[in-house]
Amino acid sequence: MIARLLTTIVASVLALFAAASVVEAASNARIKDVVSLQAGRDNQLIGYGLVVGLQGTGDGLRASPFTDQSMRAMLQNLGISTQGGQSAAKNVAAVMVTTNLPPFTSPGSRIDVTVSSLGDATSLRGGTLVMTSLTGADGQIYAVAQGAVVVSGFSATGAATQLTEGITTAGRIPGGAIIERELPSRFKDSGALVLQLRNPDFSTAIRVADVINSFSTSTYRMPIAEARDSQVVSVQKPPQEDLARLMARIENLAVETDTPAKVVINERTGTIVIGADVRISKVAVSYGTLTVQVTETPQVIQPLPFSRGETYVQPQTDITAEKTGGPVAVLEGPDLRSLVAGLNSIGVKPDGIIAILQGIKSAGALQAELVLQ
Question: Which terms are listed as keywords in the entry (predicted)?
């Protein structure tokens, strides 16, 4: 009986420790989620091409002469004579093709491309991109794109109205580019890994280095990581370890991240994003608006019958002013929940909260960086 009771107690204690470790792990992030490998960065590619097969929604060749020149050059390369007058076709559009070349890609693999209209085409729906070379910043061709353009938006035009949803002059081609040349990479030849934090922070960089050193000390009997600054952590390769295997081991280590307190405001959309570490010192806030309405009701004055008077218009203007405002509220945000509750207690819309946060920042009571977009 006592043995069974002890077993139950031990199992409960182990369950509590497991739950605590799960909560702690849930609050941490993997190194692969907070850093990127310097040797594994993307490279941008760009190209100029033509989209054909449009249903009368292509470029006006008179308004976009480069489209006509490109079409003639393409036909001449195919052995077709283009001598004669200017073409009036409306099913061709000049486009710019852009994409990102992922790291460690090999020739023959496919990547997605984005196609954007360059002329006055109204829609790329139903079009097909003809063979387009994609070059890098060094002028070398790294991929070739071709395929049907997928456009999410649509446009419908009638005699008196037009309905448009989304963007019809840009689209994507999933897997539309084939890699023809691989980037020169010496990942295996280098003797160190350079990790770059996506959100630079000294505290996070030090914690990443400490976690890696704790792992390497128990595994290789030596520290291998060093935080150079707030963004870069250098990891030396142990003599007996492979570089790819070392990266695979350390990228799954959990690290506690830290970010500076920020409030991001987008005044165009009314979006407000408040970080978890934002604090507000005790302040008193009152928000009110003044609405002025001007109404013009001119009156027509008619002369009496059989009189020689003239009809004239007498202006009449009514101006009303309405001022609304709530009571003075005391705000203090020791944590995010208290801050949001205090802002909601004032009962204003997002544009009012934006003005209040800007005023609190000007008063020096907002203990965070205010980012306006």
Answer: Bacterial flagellum, Cell projection, Cilium, Flagellum, Periplasm, Signal
Domain ranges of the chain: 43-79+88-154+163-179, 186-255, 262-372
Strands of the sheet containing 366-367, edge to edge, are 329-333, 279-285, 366-367
**Contact present, 48 and 134 (Cβ < 8 Å):** no
Residues 6+ away with beta carbon under 8 Å from 180: 107, 141, 142, 143, 144
What is the pLDDT at residue 102? 87
Residue 115, phi-psi category: left (phi > 0), alpha (psi -120 to 50), beta (remainder):
beta
> Are the CB atoms for 325 and 287 separated by under 8 Å?
yes
- As a whole number of angstroms, the distance between CA 127 and CA 93 comes to 9
* pLDDT of amino acid 260: 83
pLDDT tens digits along 331-355:
666 666 676 777 777 666 777 778 8
- Cβ neighbours, 10 Å, residue 363: 12
CATH class for the region spanning 186-255: alpha beta
